[in-house]
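Budget justification aside, the reviewers requested a transparent look at the raw inputs and outputs of the sequence design task funded under Objective 1. We therefore reproduce one unedited record. The lines immediately below are the structure tokens for a 235-residue chain.
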């Protein structure tokens, strides 16, 4: 992966980051008012559903429009999983090559977190498709909920590790580092809270937005000013 540590390689990672942002926007959003436990987004509600009864309530929301949106989003998600896995792994490996020693291994761990999160996302989507096909049980809810919580945990740990790798540079990249670290802190707090008391928490959407801003800053910087990453020697 040494070829990534060049202006063309950095631009490639920037392009992948832009693809992640564009695909995220294409996924779309929907708000529903009659979801369980205070959720507003039907996709997130089903990802973190706590029992079979709530599966039925989510799919009935907005006179069935929520189910239609979830189905469309789930099929889109198969492409999104590939996009974020490739983007996040490439970013992690680039940052690992910009560092040495123990710090370099942090990038490889971040790449591993992104890869494992993608696998768990596929498991989650399989459960959601079963729910959309009409199955609703507590065991199905568990088969969606726990892989989803594990997926989010790994993605927020990825954000934490990338934030730390950017922070050690002590230059312009402390700005996106702050967004990655804030996403990690709020997101992991949301995971812990939801694990013990399943319900909607503002920490999830806030962390997702913060992570997206961090990725967007890197996308712009890597694509148009890749030399910024090369200007400082590895710590």
């Amino acid at each position: 992966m040494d070829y990534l540590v060049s202006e063309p390689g950095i631009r490639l990672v920037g392009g992948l980051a832009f693809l992640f942002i564009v695909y995220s926007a294409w996924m779309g959003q929907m708000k529903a008012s009659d979801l369980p436990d205070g959720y507003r987004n039907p996709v997130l509600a089903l990802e973190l559903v706590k029992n079979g009864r709530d599966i039925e309530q989510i799919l009935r929301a907005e006179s069935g429009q929520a189910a239609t949106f979830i189905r469309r989003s789930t099929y889109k998600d198969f492409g999104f999983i590939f996009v974020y896995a490739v983007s996040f792994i490439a970013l992690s490996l680039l940052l690992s090559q910009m560092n040495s020693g123990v710090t370099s291994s942090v990038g490889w761990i971040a790449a591993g977190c992104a890869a494992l999160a993608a696998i768990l996302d596929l498991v989650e989507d399989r459960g959601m498709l079963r729910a959309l096909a009409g199955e609703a049980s507590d065991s199905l809810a568990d088969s969606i909920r726990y892989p989803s919580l594990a997926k989010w945990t790994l993605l927020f740990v990825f954000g934490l590790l990338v934030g730390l790798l950017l922070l050690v540079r002590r230059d312009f990249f402390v700005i996106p580092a702050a967004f990655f670290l804030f996403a990690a802190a709020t997101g992991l707090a949301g995971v812990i809270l939801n694990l013990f008391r399943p319900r909607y928490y503002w920490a999830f959407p806030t962390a997702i937005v913060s992570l997206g801003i961090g990725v967007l800053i890197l996308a712009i910087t890597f694509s148009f000013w890749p030399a910024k990453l090369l200007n400082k020697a590895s710590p």
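The radius of gyration is 18 Å. The chain has a mean pLDDT of 93. Computational costs for records of this kind are itemized in the attached budget.
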